[in-house]
Design goal:
Chain lengths: ~120, ~120, ~120
């Protein structure tokens, strides 16, 4: 079982770049066989999956086992307030939608993931 | 005993809105019987208890068991630097003042609360 | 063994002031004999060790046992992108350089340090 468990919490679209660099550095430093990385995006960062210029980098990381999550509450709120409406079907296939990002974040910490806010 | 323990750290007045939405979503998602939420406010967020337009929302959450903390060190600093002087007696009754918010944050994590910076 | 273990993550040069105040408050509140504090700086905060006007405050804290870390990945990135090039030899002697700040942050949490993003 992978021992180095990292949970990255991205809540702002502008922090994606730092978050992805952090994941890349972590994989490189501890080794892909040891690194277990989950990235939970809520707030404006949840919508980034639909239009970010970082999708290719995310995809490479997903292929290396990094897990990507999007918060449905956030997507609904962004649509309700008129910011942007994202069709969940339009998100990349490597993204898993969770009902509430915050519950995922708490659950993962209970499973031993170290929380980091990039 | 409630199993899903969440510690929200709010250090900036402008993050209160996100923090409260996060607490609401968490209660809704895991259920009020399972959710144990503590919110520790320091920095400018500690003073928000005295004048924020979010007091009513906080009060509703307090009635559902969410615990609110204010850092005395922060209140003193805000007064000393001339930003705002808050009389502790003037804070809402649902707010508990702690001598040092940072110690409360560390203690709660030791008790098993998952740290989240909204 | 010290029981109150605190890990401060500073990723932005502008957050150093808050981070150091947090460390000072923590030492004062729980007592220097009980407090075990590690500060990991990455991003622009890693370069601050070379030119910040807070060095003296850091030094006082280092003398009280606070451990300071700088992320080498961040220093390399800041140099590569033309922001600032820091010679590691020029950093204060109380700063320990780690290959990847993110791995240090995960390791420390595994050792029981409570993560806080000031």
């Amino acid at each position: 079982m992978k021992q180095m468990k990292l949970l990255l919490h991205v809540s702002d679209n502008e922090r994606w770049s730092v978050a992805l660099t952090t994941a890349i550095n972590f994989l490189k430093d501890v080794g892909e066989d040891e690194a277990d990385v989950v990235i939970v995006a809520n707030g404006t960062a949840a919508a980034s999956y639909a239009y970010s210029d970082k999708i290719e980098t995310m995809e490479v990381l997903a292929d290396k086992g990094v897990q990507f999550r999007a918060c449905r509450n956030s997507l609904k709120k962004l649509c309700a307030e008129g910011t942007v409406c994202i069709n969940e079907e339009a998100l990349p296939s490597f993204v898993k939608i969770v009902p509430a990002g915050i519950s995922e974040i708490v659950s993962k910490q209970r499973e031993g993931y170290a929380y980091v806010k990039p």
